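Before we proceed, please read the two lines closing this message. Report back on whether the structure tokens fit the sequence:
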Amino acid sequence: MAGIIGKKLGMTRFFTEEGKSFPVTLVEAGPCVVTQIKTVEIDGYDAVQVGYFSRKESKTNKSILGIFKKANVETRQGLTEFRGQLTITDGEEEKPVEVGSELTIDQFKAGEKVRIRGKSKGKGFAGVVKRYHFKGGPGSHGQGDKLRSRGSVGASSYPSRVIKGMKMAGRMGGENRTLRDVQILEIDREKNLLVLKGPIPGAINSTIRIWN
């Protein structure tokens, strides 16, 4: 099954017919256009390249513009590859993906679980308490200024250096994150909306990748 690109709209609450309530994320997914198909024989791996947002030709790099000219499709931005996804579900049949074909949320079903990939919110420079949930030091016995300190970072005589990978203060967020087994609670095919259970990485209006 080929994946799809979407835009995160925000979070709300979803109620089932039994009266249960779940926090959900709304994603406007597709329609996307297949711009290129990569194969093992030519590119060394199988993948489907997909474009989402429309873009003017005048604002598109010439090297990338050739991809759209060859595929005979409208210029797009947000190009993404889904590796190993060379078929698409049409009803109960699996059909091969073709260049120029349109990908919609019709390939998904309510109740199934998918993988989500997005860029997490950037939090800027953060200390170890916020970044790694450190407990911090005592607030008394002469340690009033060490409440949110991380403590010792180096060794003594050996190896006399800070170990690589030591958890310290630094830039937090702004990284690509993948969630597995995110359940689709409901699909609005008229508005191209997916109702996903729980939170997903990314700010509002950020680009989200969805695949099985």
Remarks:
- Helices lie at 40-43, 62-71, 128-132.
- The first strand starts at residue 4 and ends at 15.
